[in-house]
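Archive entry. Fields below.
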Amino acid sequence: MWYHKPVIDKELLQSLPNLKIVASSGVGIDHLDLNLLSSCGVKVSNTPFIVSTDTADLGMALMLASSRRLVEGYEMAVSPDTEYFPADWLGAEVSGATLGIVGMGTIGYKVAERAKSFEMKILYHNRNQRKKEEESAVGAVYCKKIDDLLQQSDFVLLAVNLTAQTHKLIGKRELELMKPTATLINISRGLVVDQDALVEALQNKIIKAAALDVTYPEPLPRDHPLLKLKNVIITPHIGSATKKTRRVMMEEMSESIQAGLAGLPIPHEVL
Amino acid sequence: LSKKIQAIYLWWHKPVIDRELLQSLPNLKVIANSGVGMDHLDLKLIASFGVKMANAPRAVSSSTADAGMALLLASARRLVEVYHIAISSSMDYCEADILGVEVAGATLGIIGMGSIGYKIALRAKAFKMNILYHNRTQRKAQEEQAVGAVYCEKIDSLLQQADFVMVVVSLTPQTRNLIGKRELELMKPTATLINISRGAVVDQEALVRALQTGVIRAAALDVTYPEPLPRDHPLLKLKNVIITPHLGIKTDKATYMITEEAVENILAALNGLPVPNEVLPS
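PREDICTED_STRUCTURE:
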C-alpha cells in the first residue's frame, strides 16, 4: 500500500479471499479500518521509525523556510521584474524564538533536538509528560493545557498522529489563542487542522503564516484558497521523501509481506 | 551640513565611501557598518583620512547561520521545486521526481569556521551530520569536540568528502574565487554547494558550467555577484539552484541588534573611547 492506494474497503476485501497482509508505507494508519481488516483475518504492518528523522528535518525546513520567507525571496531573486533587493524586506528570527510542539512522540522529540541547537525555547503538549531526563536533554517544558502552549509560541508544530481525539485539534478557538505573529507548521495529517478555520485565520491575520506538508485532501482542489495565500507554504506530503528512507521503507514492507505470507511473526505489525 | 557630519551609519553599502565623499566631510570621525562584511570598503583609504571603521559582528551570526541551515534543508529536500508542484494548476507529477537527499548522516564541510561557521556546526550536529571544516587556523580541541568537527588542513580533503559544502568565509584577496573549476571538480557529483559568504568567493561562471554538466548536484546561494544578478543570467534558470536575496541578516531581531552595535561603535568613537568592533586595515 503506497500513499493510501488502493482504498481498502469491504468490497475490496471480499473480492480478495486469499489476502493475508496489507503492508502500509509510512507510519500513519489513519486511512485503514483496522477492525474491518482484523475481522477478515488480514494482518497489517507499517514502517514506523524509519520516517521519523526525515519528517523532523522537514518540519525544521518548513519552519525556517516560512520564517525567513525563502520561497518569496527565491521568487524575488529570479523574477524578471526585479531591479534591486529592497532594504526593508525582512523575515522573522528562528534562533531564540519559542517553539511549541504538539505531539512529542518520536518525530516531535527529534524536532525538539534540532530546535534546541537553534537556542529555541521549547514547549510541548502531549497525552503524557515525558521523563525528566528526556525533557532536560532538549530543554522542553511540558504544557498540560494546549492553551498555554498556543498562547506563548512563535511557532506551533503539529506532530501528532490522526485519531478521533486529534481530529480538528486545531480549530478556530486554538488559532485565536495563538499569537498574531505566530506560524503554524503541520507535518502530521491534514485532518488534525480545521482547514476552513485555518483559511479564515490566515486571511484575517489571526496568525501570521502556515507551512503545511499535509492537507485534506491531498492534493487540494486546484481552486482551494490555501493555494493562493501568500503567507502559506505547501509541500506535497514529502515528510519521508528521500531516496534512502524510501528504499528502507520498501525493504521493511517486503520483509513484512514475506513474513506474513510465510506465517511468521511480522516485523512492524500494527495491532 | 557637511562640516557637521561626524559619523556615518552605512546601510547596505550606501552611501559609497570614496575619496570625494571623504574629502567633503572634514569632521567625519567614524563609519559604522551594518553587518560584518567590510569588502565593499577601501579600509586603507578611509584610515588615511583618520576615520575609524567598525562592523557589527555579533548581531549577524545567529541569523546568518539560520539562513545557511534554511538553504541547506531547502536544497536537500527540494523545497522550492516541490512547492511549485504542490500549487501548480496541474497535479501530474511522478513520485520519483520529488525525492530529496538525506541530511542525517550526511557530511557537511564548512569552509570558514568563524562565529557564523561555528554556529552552523552547532546546528548541523543536532541534525546528526558529520562535520568537516577548513579554516586559516585550527580551532581549539574543546571547540572541535563540542560539535564533533574534524579539521581539514587542505581544502581538497574537505571537498572530496562532503555531501554539503557551506562557504562561510569573509571576502579577502585570498578568498576571491576560492571555489573555482578545480574545487568544483573535486566535489562529489552528488554534492551541494551553499554560499552565504560573498558572491565573489565563488567563480560564478565555473559554477554555472558545473551545475549544467552535473559536476555537482545543486547549489543554494544567498549571495551572488552582482546582487541582483542580470535578469538573463544562467543561474536564474537552472532547476538545481536556489537563489535568495541576501537575506542572511534580514530579520527584525538581527537588524535591531546590528543597529544597537553600530550605535555603540559610533558613540565610543565620538567620545574618544576604544571602539568595541573597530576594524583596522590589515
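CURATOR_NOTE: Chain B has a mean pLDDT of 95.
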